[in-house]
Protein backbone atom coordinates (compact mmCIF):
# COMPACT_ATOMS: atom_id res chain seq x y z
CA UNK A 1 0.00 0.00 0.00
CA UNK A 2 2.80 2.35 0.88
CA UNK A 3 4.48 1.47 -2.42
CA UNK A 4 1.36 2.27 -4.39
CA UNK A 5 0.95 5.64 -2.70
CA UNK A 6 4.58 6.50 -3.48
CA UNK A 7 4.09 5.76 -7.17
CA UNK A 8 0.95 7.89 -7.25
CA UNK A 9 2.71 10.81 -5.55
CA UNK A 10 5.68 10.61 -7.92
CA UNK A 11 3.41 10.51 -10.96
CA UNK A 12 1.42 13.51 -9.80
CA UNK A 13 4.64 15.40 -9.09
CA UNK A 14 5.97 14.71 -12.61
CA UNK A 15 2.62 15.61 -14.11
CA UNK A 16 2.47 18.86 -12.21
CA UNK A 17 6.02 19.78 -13.15
CA UNK A 18 5.44 18.88 -16.83
CA UNK A 19 2.30 20.97 -17.05
CA UNK A 20 4.14 23.98 -15.80
CA UNK A 21 6.90 23.67 -18.45
CA UNK A 22 4.43 23.05 -21.33
CA UNK A 23 2.23 25.90 -20.27
CA UNK A 24 5.18 28.31 -20.39
CA UNK A 25 6.34 27.16 -23.85
CA UNK A 26 2.87 27.16 -25.23
CA UNK A 27 2.23 30.63 -23.93
CA UNK A 28 5.38 31.87 -25.60
CA UNK A 29 4.54 30.11 -28.87
CA UNK A 30 1.00 31.38 -28.80
CA UNK A 31 2.26 34.91 -28.28
CA UNK A 32 4.70 34.59 -31.15
CA UNK A 33 2.07 33.11 -33.44
CA UNK A 34 -0.35 35.90 -32.60
CA UNK A 35 2.32 38.51 -33.38
CA UNK A 36 3.21 36.81 -36.67
CA UNK A 37 -0.42 36.52 -37.68
CA UNK A 38 -1.00 40.15 -36.83
CA UNK A 39 2.09 41.18 -38.79
CA UNK A 40 1.03 39.05 -41.76
CA UNK A 41 -2.41 40.56 -41.71
CA UNK A 42 -0.92 44.03 -41.67
CA UNK A 43 1.40 43.17 -44.54
CA UNK A 44 -1.40 41.59 -46.55
CA UNK A 45 -3.48 44.72 -46.09
CA UNK A 46 -0.62 46.79 -47.51
CA UNK A 47 -0.57 44.69 -50.69
CA UNK A 48 -3.87 46.18 -51.71
CA UNK A 49 -3.07 49.68 -50.48
CA UNK A 50 -2.55 52.87 -52.43
CA UNK A 51 0.92 53.56 -51.09
CA UNK A 52 3.26 52.10 -53.73
CA UNK A 53 6.30 52.03 -51.46
CA UNK A 54 4.43 50.14 -48.72
CA UNK A 55 2.97 47.77 -51.29
CA UNK A 56 6.41 46.85 -52.55
CA UNK A 57 7.77 46.49 -49.00
CA UNK A 58 4.93 44.06 -48.35
CA UNK A 59 5.91 42.00 -51.40
CA UNK A 60 9.50 41.85 -50.19
CA UNK A 61 8.46 40.92 -46.65
CA UNK A 62 6.15 38.10 -47.73
CA UNK A 63 8.59 36.57 -50.20
CA UNK A 64 11.78 37.10 -48.24
CA UNK A 65 12.07 33.60 -46.77
CA UNK A 66 9.65 31.93 -49.18
CA UNK A 67 7.64 30.40 -46.32
CA UNK A 68 4.61 32.52 -45.46
CA UNK A 69 1.95 30.74 -43.47
CA UNK A 70 -0.67 28.59 -45.10
CA UNK A 71 -3.27 31.14 -44.09
CA UNK A 72 -1.29 33.90 -45.82
CA UNK A 73 -0.91 31.79 -48.95
CA UNK A 74 -4.61 31.23 -49.04
CA UNK A 75 -5.20 34.94 -48.78
CA UNK A 76 -2.67 35.60 -51.53
CA UNK A 77 -4.46 33.15 -53.80
CA UNK A 78 -7.72 34.89 -53.14
CA UNK A 79 -6.11 38.27 -53.79
CA UNK A 80 -4.99 37.14 -57.28
CA UNK A 81 -8.70 37.03 -58.13
CA UNK A 82 -9.47 40.36 -56.49
CA UNK A 83 -11.15 43.21 -58.33
CA UNK A 84 -8.35 45.42 -57.02
CA UNK A 85 -5.72 45.45 -59.76
CA UNK A 86 -2.94 46.50 -57.40
CA UNK A 87 -3.76 43.63 -55.09
CA UNK A 88 -3.83 41.13 -57.96
CA UNK A 89 -0.45 42.18 -59.30
CA UNK A 90 1.24 42.27 -55.91
CA UNK A 91 -0.13 38.89 -54.84
CA UNK A 92 0.92 37.32 -58.14
CA UNK A 93 4.46 38.64 -57.82
CA UNK A 94 4.74 37.29 -54.26
CA UNK A 95 3.51 33.84 -55.27
CA UNK A 96 5.84 33.80 -58.30
CA UNK A 97 8.78 34.58 -56.03
CA UNK A 98 7.75 31.80 -53.64
CA UNK A 99 7.30 29.26 -56.43
CA UNK A 100 9.14 30.25 -59.64
CA UNK A 101 7.92 29.10 -63.08
CA UNK A 102 4.43 28.29 -61.84
CA UNK A 103 2.40 28.45 -65.06
CA UNK A 104 -0.67 29.48 -63.07
CA UNK A 105 0.98 32.84 -62.48
CA UNK A 106 1.87 33.76 -66.07
CA UNK A 107 -1.29 35.72 -66.87
CA UNK A 108 -1.02 37.69 -63.65
CA UNK A 109 2.65 38.44 -64.27
CA UNK A 110 1.86 39.73 -67.74
CA UNK A 111 -0.65 42.08 -66.15
CA UNK A 112 1.96 43.12 -63.58
CA UNK A 113 4.26 44.29 -66.38
CA UNK A 114 2.07 47.39 -66.51
CA UNK A 115 1.95 47.91 -62.75
CA UNK A 116 2.41 51.56 -61.68
CA UNK A 117 5.35 50.65 -59.43
CA UNK A 118 8.62 50.14 -61.26
CA UNK A 119 9.99 47.51 -58.90
CA UNK A 120 6.79 45.52 -59.37
CA UNK A 121 7.18 45.65 -63.15
CA UNK A 122 10.78 44.56 -62.93
CA UNK A 123 9.91 41.71 -60.56
CA UNK A 124 7.20 40.53 -62.96
CA UNK A 125 9.64 40.56 -65.88
CA UNK A 126 12.22 38.64 -63.85
CA UNK A 127 9.59 36.07 -62.94
CA UNK A 128 8.54 35.61 -66.58
CA UNK A 129 12.15 34.94 -67.57
CA UNK A 130 12.06 31.77 -65.44
CA UNK A 131 9.38 30.17 -67.62
CA UNK A 132 11.45 29.62 -70.75
CA UNK A 133 10.18 29.29 -74.31
CA UNK A 134 8.37 25.99 -73.72
CA UNK A 135 5.62 27.64 -71.70
CA UNK A 136 2.92 28.89 -74.01
CA UNK A 137 2.54 32.63 -73.73
CA UNK A 138 5.90 33.33 -72.09
CA UNK A 139 7.56 34.45 -75.31
CA UNK A 140 4.56 36.58 -76.19
CA UNK A 141 4.74 38.16 -72.75
CA UNK A 142 8.41 38.97 -73.16
CA UNK A 143 7.80 40.42 -76.60
CA UNK A 144 5.17 42.63 -75.05
CA UNK A 145 7.59 43.61 -72.30
CA UNK A 146 10.12 44.71 -74.91
CA UNK A 147 7.73 47.53 -75.75
CA UNK A 148 7.44 48.67 -72.14
CA UNK A 149 8.00 52.32 -71.27
CA UNK A 150 10.28 51.15 -68.48
CA UNK A 151 13.89 50.80 -69.64
CA UNK A 152 14.69 48.20 -66.99
CA UNK A 153 11.78 46.05 -68.11
CA UNK A 154 12.90 46.36 -71.73
CA UNK A 155 16.42 45.32 -70.79
CA UNK A 156 15.16 42.30 -68.85
CA UNK A 157 12.84 41.29 -71.67
CA UNK A 158 15.48 41.52 -74.40
CA UNK A 159 18.02 39.76 -72.17
CA UNK A 160 15.49 37.00 -71.55
CA UNK A 161 14.86 36.58 -75.26
CA UNK A 162 18.60 36.12 -75.73
CA UNK A 163 18.70 33.43 -73.04
CA UNK A 164 15.62 31.39 -73.84
CA UNK A 165 16.08 31.58 -77.65
CA UNK A 166 12.50 31.17 -78.80
CA UNK A 167 11.76 30.45 -82.48
CA UNK A 168 13.35 33.08 -84.71
CA UNK A 169 10.20 33.96 -86.60
CA UNK A 170 8.52 35.00 -83.33
CA UNK A 171 11.08 37.54 -82.23
CA UNK A 172 13.23 38.70 -85.14
CA UNK A 173 10.96 41.65 -85.95
CA UNK A 174 10.81 42.78 -82.32
CA UNK A 175 14.58 42.56 -81.94
CA UNK A 176 15.06 44.53 -85.14
CA UNK A 177 12.92 47.31 -83.66
CA UNK A 178 15.01 47.16 -80.48
CA UNK A 179 18.06 48.19 -82.50
CA UNK A 180 16.64 51.72 -82.47
CA UNK A 181 15.97 51.75 -78.73
CA UNK A 182 17.29 54.83 -76.96
CA UNK A 183 18.68 52.69 -74.14
CA UNK A 184 22.05 51.12 -75.01
CA UNK A 185 21.67 47.81 -73.08
CA UNK A 186 18.45 47.09 -74.98
CA UNK A 187 20.24 47.61 -78.29
CA UNK A 188 23.15 45.41 -77.26
CA UNK A 189 20.93 42.55 -76.08
CA UNK A 190 19.00 42.78 -79.34
CA UNK A 191 22.08 42.59 -81.56
CA UNK A 192 23.49 39.70 -79.51
CA UNK A 193 20.29 37.79 -80.05
CA UNK A 194 20.25 38.55 -83.77
CA UNK A 195 23.84 37.51 -84.48
CA UNK A 196 23.24 34.24 -82.64
CA UNK A 197 20.41 33.32 -85.02
CA UNK A 198 20.67 31.34 -88.23
CA UNK A 199 21.51 34.02 -90.76
CA UNK A 200 19.44 32.27 -93.42
CA UNK A 201 16.29 32.42 -91.28
CA UNK A 202 13.60 34.80 -92.60
CA UNK A 203 14.04 38.35 -91.37
CA UNK A 204 17.53 37.98 -89.90
CA UNK A 205 19.50 39.51 -92.79
CA UNK A 206 17.20 42.57 -93.09
CA UNK A 207 17.52 43.08 -89.33
CA UNK A 208 21.31 42.89 -89.50
CA UNK A 209 21.25 45.31 -92.41
CA UNK A 210 19.42 47.81 -90.19
CA UNK A 211 22.17 47.37 -87.62
CA UNK A 212 24.89 47.95 -90.24
CA UNK A 213 23.25 51.21 -91.31
CA UNK A 214 22.55 52.36 -87.75
CA UNK A 215 24.22 55.23 -85.95
CA UNK A 216 25.83 52.92 -83.38
CA UNK A 217 29.30 51.62 -84.19
CA UNK A 218 28.84 48.74 -81.73
CA UNK A 219 25.82 47.53 -83.66
CA UNK A 220 27.51 48.01 -87.02
CA UNK A 221 30.58 46.06 -86.00
CA UNK A 222 28.64 43.17 -84.45
CA UNK A 223 26.33 42.88 -87.44
CA UNK A 224 29.16 43.09 -89.97
CA UNK A 225 31.14 40.38 -88.19
CA UNK A 226 28.14 38.07 -88.45
CA UNK A 227 27.47 38.95 -92.08
CA UNK A 228 31.07 38.65 -93.23
CA UNK A 229 31.38 35.26 -91.53
CA UNK A 230 28.38 34.03 -93.52
CA UNK A 231 28.31 32.55 -97.00
CA UNK A 232 28.41 35.54 -99.35
CA UNK A 233 26.27 33.68 -101.87
CA UNK A 234 23.36 33.70 -99.42
CA UNK A 235 20.78 36.06 -100.84
CA UNK A 236 20.91 39.50 -99.25
CA UNK A 237 24.21 39.07 -97.37
CA UNK A 238 26.33 41.22 -99.69
CA UNK A 239 23.64 43.90 -99.93
CA UNK A 240 23.47 44.02 -96.13
CA UNK A 241 27.24 44.38 -95.91
CA UNK A 242 27.10 47.17 -98.49
CA UNK A 243 24.98 49.26 -96.12
CA UNK A 244 28.17 50.23 -94.26
CA UNK A 245 29.22 52.29 -97.28
CA UNK A 246 26.41 54.73 -96.54
CA UNK A 247 27.77 55.67 -93.09
CA UNK A 248 30.85 57.62 -92.07
CA UNK A 249 33.02 54.79 -90.78
CA UNK A 250 36.26 54.44 -92.81
CA UNK A 251 37.65 51.70 -90.55
CA UNK A 252 34.70 49.36 -91.04
CA UNK A 253 34.54 50.27 -94.72
CA UNK A 254 38.17 49.23 -95.03
CA UNK A 255 37.37 45.92 -93.30
CA UNK A 256 34.54 45.35 -95.76
CA UNK A 257 36.79 46.10 -98.72
CA UNK A 258 39.47 43.72 -97.47
CA UNK A 259 36.84 40.99 -97.28
CA UNK A 260 35.07 41.63 -100.58
CA UNK A 261 38.09 42.42 -102.73
CA UNK A 262 39.17 38.79 -102.41
CA UNK A 263 35.65 37.52 -103.06
CA UNK A 264 34.47 36.16 -106.39
CA UNK A 265 33.27 39.19 -108.40
CA UNK A 266 30.67 36.93 -110.01
CA UNK A 267 28.78 36.84 -106.69
CA UNK A 268 25.83 39.24 -107.06
CA UNK A 269 26.48 42.57 -105.39
CA UNK A 270 30.24 42.23 -104.88
CA UNK A 271 31.29 44.56 -107.69
CA UNK A 272 28.56 46.99 -106.64
CA UNK A 273 30.32 47.30 -103.27
CA UNK A 274 33.62 47.85 -105.06
CA UNK A 275 31.98 50.65 -107.02
CA UNK A 276 30.70 52.17 -103.76
CA UNK A 277 34.24 52.01 -102.41
CA UNK A 278 35.42 54.07 -105.38
CA UNK A 279 32.81 56.69 -104.47
CA UNK A 280 34.12 56.92 -100.91
CA UNK A 281 35.40 60.27 -99.69
CA UNK A 282 38.21 58.38 -97.98
CA UNK A 283 41.17 58.24 -100.35
CA UNK A 284 42.65 55.17 -98.67
CA UNK A 285 39.47 53.25 -99.36
CA UNK A 286 39.57 54.19 -103.05
CA UNK A 287 43.23 53.23 -103.33
CA UNK A 288 42.50 49.91 -101.60
CA UNK A 289 39.76 49.15 -104.11
CA UNK A 290 41.91 50.03 -107.12
CA UNK A 291 44.71 47.79 -105.89
CA UNK A 292 42.23 44.95 -105.64
CA UNK A 293 41.00 45.64 -109.16
CA UNK A 294 44.49 45.10 -110.57
CA UNK A 295 44.16 41.34 -110.08
CA UNK A 296 40.41 40.95 -110.62
CA UNK A 297 39.21 39.03 -113.69
CA UNK A 298 38.05 41.26 -116.57
CA UNK A 299 34.32 40.81 -116.11
CA UNK A 300 32.15 43.65 -117.46
CA UNK A 301 31.28 44.94 -113.97
CA UNK A 302 34.94 44.80 -112.97
CA UNK A 303 35.95 46.83 -116.02
CA UNK A 304 33.25 49.37 -115.21
CA UNK A 305 34.87 49.77 -111.78
CA UNK A 306 38.28 50.23 -113.39
CA UNK A 307 36.83 52.89 -115.69
CA UNK A 308 35.38 54.67 -112.66
CA UNK A 309 38.81 54.58 -111.00
CA UNK A 310 40.41 55.99 -114.15
CA UNK A 311 38.01 58.94 -113.91
CA UNK A 312 39.02 59.65 -110.30
CA UNK A 313 40.20 63.19 -109.59
CA UNK A 314 43.14 61.76 -107.66
CA UNK A 315 45.93 61.47 -110.21
CA UNK A 316 47.47 58.35 -108.68
CA UNK A 317 44.18 56.45 -108.61
CA UNK A 318 43.35 57.61 -112.13
CA UNK A 319 46.77 56.52 -113.38
CA UNK A 320 46.34 53.09 -111.76
CA UNK A 321 43.03 52.71 -113.57
CA UNK A 322 44.50 53.69 -116.93
CA UNK A 323 47.42 51.32 -116.50
CA UNK A 324 45.03 48.46 -115.76
CA UNK A 325 42.99 49.34 -118.86
CA UNK A 326 46.21 49.24 -120.88
CA UNK A 327 47.11 45.84 -119.41
CA UNK A 328 43.73 44.42 -120.35
CA UNK A 329 43.88 45.85 -123.86
CA UNK A 330 40.95 44.77 -126.06
CA UNK A 331 39.32 43.03 -123.09
CA UNK A 332 38.67 46.51 -121.74
CA UNK A 333 37.23 47.94 -124.94
CA UNK A 334 34.33 49.27 -122.83
CA UNK A 335 36.86 51.91 -121.78
CA UNK A 336 37.35 53.25 -125.32
CA UNK A 337 35.00 56.25 -124.85
CA UNK A 338 36.96 57.22 -121.74
CA UNK A 339 40.23 57.01 -123.65
CA UNK A 340 38.84 59.32 -126.32
CA UNK A 341 37.76 61.76 -123.59
CA UNK A 342 41.27 61.78 -122.17
CA UNK A 343 42.95 62.21 -125.55
CA UNK A 344 40.72 65.14 -126.45
CA UNK A 345 40.63 66.52 -122.93
CA UNK A 346 42.84 68.83 -120.87
CA UNK A 347 45.17 66.22 -119.31
CA UNK A 348 47.81 66.51 -122.01
CA UNK A 349 50.39 64.55 -120.05
CA UNK A 350 48.40 61.37 -120.58
CA UNK A 351 47.55 61.77 -124.24
CA UNK A 352 50.34 59.70 -125.72
CA UNK A 353 49.96 56.70 -123.39
CA UNK A 354 46.20 56.72 -123.94
CA UNK A 355 46.67 56.87 -127.72
CA UNK A 356 48.90 53.80 -127.47
CA UNK A 357 46.23 51.94 -125.51
CA UNK A 358 43.43 52.94 -127.86
CA UNK A 359 45.33 52.09 -131.05
CA UNK A 360 46.30 48.72 -129.60
CA UNK A 361 42.65 48.03 -128.82
CA UNK A 362 41.59 49.09 -132.31
CA UNK A 363 44.18 46.90 -133.97
CA UNK A 364 42.91 43.89 -132.02
CA UNK A 365 39.23 44.80 -132.37
CA UNK A 366 38.37 46.48 -135.69
CA UNK A 367 34.97 47.61 -134.38
CA UNK A 368 36.85 50.28 -132.45
CA UNK A 369 38.16 51.91 -135.63
CA UNK A 370 35.44 54.62 -135.62
CA UNK A 371 36.31 55.45 -132.02
CA UNK A 372 39.95 55.77 -132.94
CA UNK A 373 39.21 58.08 -135.84
CA UNK A 374 37.29 60.50 -133.67
CA UNK A 375 40.45 61.58 -131.93
CA UNK A 376 41.68 63.04 -135.20
CA UNK A 377 39.63 66.09 -134.30
CA UNK A 378 42.14 66.84 -131.56
CA UNK A 379 44.46 69.78 -132.03
CA UNK A 380 47.43 67.79 -130.78
CA UNK A 381 49.81 67.35 -133.71
CA UNK A 382 51.76 64.57 -131.99
CA UNK A 383 48.54 62.65 -131.41
CA UNK A 384 47.62 62.84 -135.07
CA UNK A 385 51.06 61.71 -136.08
CA UNK A 386 50.89 58.77 -133.73
CA UNK A 387 47.47 57.78 -135.05
CA UNK A 388 48.60 57.98 -138.65
CA UNK A 389 51.57 55.80 -137.80
CA UNK A 390 49.36 53.30 -135.96
CA UNK A 391 46.93 53.06 -138.85
CA UNK A 392 49.79 52.67 -141.27
CA UNK A 393 51.03 49.66 -139.30
CA UNK A 394 47.88 47.82 -140.34
CA UNK A 395 45.45 45.80 -138.31
CA UNK A 396 42.44 48.04 -138.94
CA UNK A 397 39.77 47.00 -141.38
CA UNK A 398 40.33 49.35 -144.28
CA UNK A 399 36.75 49.41 -145.50
CA UNK A 400 35.32 50.47 -142.12
CA UNK A 401 38.08 52.96 -141.53
CA UNK A 402 37.68 54.55 -144.95
CA UNK A 403 34.00 55.19 -144.37
CA UNK A 404 34.60 56.85 -141.01
CA UNK A 405 37.42 58.98 -142.35
CA UNK A 406 35.22 60.05 -145.23
CA UNK A 407 32.61 61.25 -142.74
CA UNK A 408 35.27 63.20 -140.90
CA UNK A 409 36.37 64.85 -144.10
CA UNK A 410 32.93 66.37 -144.53
CA UNK A 411 32.59 67.38 -140.89
CA UNK A 412 32.31 71.15 -140.63
CA UNK A 413 34.75 71.29 -137.71
CA UNK A 414 37.44 69.34 -139.52
CA UNK A 415 40.30 71.70 -140.25
CA UNK A 416 42.43 71.63 -143.36
CA UNK A 417 45.37 70.30 -141.39
CA UNK A 418 43.33 67.39 -140.10
CA UNK A 419 42.03 66.72 -143.60
CA UNK A 420 45.62 66.38 -144.71
CA UNK A 421 46.16 63.77 -142.01
CA UNK A 422 43.04 61.95 -143.17
CA UNK A 423 44.27 61.94 -146.76
CA UNK A 424 47.57 60.51 -145.55
CA UNK A 425 45.73 57.70 -143.82
CA UNK A 426 43.46 57.07 -146.79
CA UNK A 427 46.46 56.78 -149.06
CA UNK A 428 47.44 53.68 -147.11
CA UNK A 429 44.05 51.99 -147.36
CA UNK A 430 44.02 50.98 -151.02
CA UNK A 431 40.78 50.46 -152.99
CA UNK A 432 38.43 50.84 -149.97
CA UNK A 433 39.39 54.53 -149.97
CA UNK A 434 37.65 55.15 -153.29
CA UNK A 435 34.37 56.16 -151.66
CA UNK A 436 36.24 58.46 -149.32
CA UNK A 437 38.07 59.92 -152.28
CA UNK A 438 34.79 60.81 -153.93
CA UNK A 439 33.70 62.46 -150.68
CA UNK A 440 36.95 64.39 -150.70
CA UNK A 441 36.21 65.76 -154.15
CA UNK A 442 32.73 66.80 -153.05
CA UNK A 443 34.20 68.55 -150.03
CA UNK A 444 36.74 70.32 -152.19
CA UNK A 445 34.04 71.57 -154.51
CA UNK A 446 31.97 73.01 -151.65
CA UNK A 447 34.73 75.00 -150.03
CA UNK A 448 38.09 76.47 -150.81
CA UNK A 449 40.84 74.03 -149.94
CA UNK A 450 44.54 74.71 -149.44
CA UNK A 451 46.54 73.97 -152.55
CA UNK A 452 48.51 71.18 -150.88
CA UNK A 453 45.31 69.43 -149.82
CA UNK A 454 43.80 69.76 -153.27
CA UNK A 455 46.89 68.15 -154.79
CA UNK A 456 46.63 65.31 -152.27
CA UNK A 457 42.99 64.80 -153.20
CA UNK A 458 43.79 64.69 -156.90
CA UNK A 459 46.63 62.23 -156.29
CA UNK A 460 44.27 60.05 -154.27
CA UNK A 461 41.62 60.14 -156.99
CA UNK A 462 44.18 59.42 -159.66
CA UNK A 463 45.40 56.41 -157.72
CA UNK A 464 42.01 54.78 -157.06
CA UNK A 465 39.72 56.34 -159.61
CA UNK A 466 36.85 58.62 -158.66
CA UNK A 467 34.25 56.48 -160.32
CA UNK A 468 35.37 53.07 -159.04
CA UNK A 469 33.12 51.22 -156.63
CA UNK A 470 34.63 50.53 -153.21
CA UNK A 471 36.24 47.14 -153.00
CA UNK A 472 35.09 44.64 -150.36
CA UNK A 473 38.54 43.36 -149.51
CA UNK A 474 40.38 44.37 -146.38
CA UNK A 475 43.82 45.84 -146.25
What does this 3D model show about the protein?
InterPro entries: ARM-like, ARM-type_fold, PBS_lyase_HEAT. GO terms for molecular function: oxidoreductase activity. Pfam families: HEAT_2. This is Clathrin/coatomer adaptor adaptin-like N-terminal domain-containing protein. By secondary structure, the chain is mainly α. 67% of the residues lie in helices and 0% in strands. It has 26 helices and no strands. It is rod-shaped and about 140 Å long.
Give the structure's gist in a few sentences.
It holds the Pfam family HEAT_2. Helix content is 67%, strand content 0%.
Q: What's the order of the H and E elements?
A: HHHHHHHHHHHHHHHHHHHHHHHHHH
Query: Which structural category fits the helices and strands?
Result: mainly alpha
- Approximately what portion of the residues adopt beta-strand conformation? under 5%
Rg to the nearest angstrom? 45 Å
End-to-end Cα distance, whole Å, is 159 Å
Work out the helicity level: 55-70%
Number of helices: 26
Q: Give the overall silhouette.
A: rod-shaped
Q: Residue ranges: pLDDT <50 for 5 or more in a row? A: 18-22, 465-475
Mean pLDDT reading = 75
Largest sheet: none
What is the number of strand segments?
Answer: 0
Protein name: Clathrin/coatomer adaptor adaptin-like N-terminal domain-containing protein
Organism: marine sediment metagenome
GO molecular function: oxidoreductase activity
InterPro entries: ARM-like, ARM-type_fold, PBS_lyase_HEAT
Amino acid sequence: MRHVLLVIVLAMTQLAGGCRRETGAEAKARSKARSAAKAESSVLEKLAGQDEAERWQAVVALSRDGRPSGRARGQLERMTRSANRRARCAATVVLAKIKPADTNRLAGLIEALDDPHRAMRVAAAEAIVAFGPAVEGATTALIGAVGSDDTKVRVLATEALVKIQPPTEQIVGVLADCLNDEFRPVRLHAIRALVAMDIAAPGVIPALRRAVASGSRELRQAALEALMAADLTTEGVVDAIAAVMSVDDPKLQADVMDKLLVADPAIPGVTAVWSMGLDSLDRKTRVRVMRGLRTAPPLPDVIDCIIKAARDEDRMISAMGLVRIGELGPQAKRAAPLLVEIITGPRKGRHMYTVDVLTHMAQEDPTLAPMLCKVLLTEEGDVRTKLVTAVGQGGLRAKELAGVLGDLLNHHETSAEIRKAIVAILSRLGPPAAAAARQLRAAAERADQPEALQRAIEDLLATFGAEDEPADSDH
